[in-house]
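Q: I have 84 residues here and want to know how they pack in 3D. Can you give me a structure?
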Amino acid sequence: MKRIKATFLAILLLLTALWLAADTLAPAPFTYFSFRTVFMQYSEVLGIELNERRHAAGAASKTAGTASGWAEQDVSPTQARRLG
């Protein structure tokens, strides 16, 4: 679990660094709506990327649902060994 958290944190930091290199969180005429537009774009980029990584982590699990924990309760140890 620590590896997943570290990966998500690294993705957040990398995307933040790339975003700040391409744009800024402090637009030139600093008004509420100009900041809101920039921050909404930034949060959308983070949301899309983290959602994509979450789906990839779920698809990469050996059994469907293991990432959320529900499959472990429905599968006996014998069935789990057969599944992988």
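Q: Anything worth noting?
A: The chain has four helices and no strands. The chain has a mean pLDDT of 77.
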